[in-house]
């Protein structure tokens, strides 16, 4: 039986325009978009209608699963809490980050992330989840055990994105030792002696593992058609390495030169939406707004605050003269979807999935009023 829903009197965010009109959903897809109001359906009262947001990088699930050091929460309960915040932030497709390999932040035992992935998939099968959940494997290539963890996801169709990371001191996110000392020694209260040994260990691991692990993981991803992301690129050499590895997504470049080179080579440059909301990076690197103003910012992710992903595009449209609201919204919808080859969503166009968000915004923080995933109301 055909199921139809009409949404009327909306400011519809198209890819390059805002249309005041109505939209028809039929059997989970967008069937028609028309200018003017319909006499039927839900009256949006002039609220915005956005495509459902596509989130490529969020550590938010990990915070629910391990809310305190050494503590593990019930997996299904953690997943449901995460999902609820994701959907009410307007995100209808989320790539949950799972950590592969132990780095300086510690890590999870082998099999623990596999168990989490199984729990996500089981929760979906049981109808517990409102957003669509896919997997993003964050691979700490300097770690001795990253390949063992990565092997747990062989042939898992939910894995659609893999990032190659190296958090060793003196490079990438931590280009200077001052940044690293603040982030790891001062925050953790390590003595100079303990910290020196820690540094020595991390540098040795990076020198031993990073290159062979990058090559091995990239090869597997290419064979399986998985999108590859670089992480915290700082130099042109890093960008050249990313090109060689077949990277399509440049996550959190730490310098303008790296961001510009990545963008010019066809990679989507991703920065954190919290960086836009706060006006700066939490680790002292380049501000995302600077990249937006210079035309080399392509994708925003919520990173660690789900609602920031809805809020940040409005800030960019308000404050960056060269970026319209449709162009800013594309950073959280159509561009991330295209980057990971999800061509059935991310835009309001006939024939695509009816992943949609009703948003009220006069000024300040936008309010999510309703969310549809494949035409079904989920929030």
Tell me about this structure.
This protein has 379 residues and is of the alpha/beta class. It has a single domain (52-344), classed as TIM Barrel (Alpha-Beta Barrel). The chain contains 13 helices and 16 strands. Strands 1, 2, 3, 4, 5, 14, 15 and 16 form an eight-stranded mixed beta sheet that branches. Strands 6-7-8-9-10-11-12-13 form an eight-stranded parallel beta sheet.
Topology:
Layout: E1 4-13, E2 18-26, E3 29-35, E4 42-43, E5 48-51, E6 53-58, H1 60-65, H2 75-87, E7 91-100, H3 112-125, E8 132-140, H4 146-151, E9 159-165, H5 177-188, H6 192-224, E10 227-231, H7 236-244, E11 249-251, H8 256-264, E12 268-272, H9 273-278, H10 288-293, E13 299-301, H11 308-319, H12 325-330, H13 334-339, E14 356-360, E15 367-373, E16 376-377
Parallel strand pairs: 1-4, 1-5, 6-7, 7-8, 8-9, 9-10, 10-11, 11-12, 12-13
Antiparallel strand pairs: 1-2, 2-3, 5-14, 14-15, 15-16
Helix pairs in contact: 2-3, 7-8
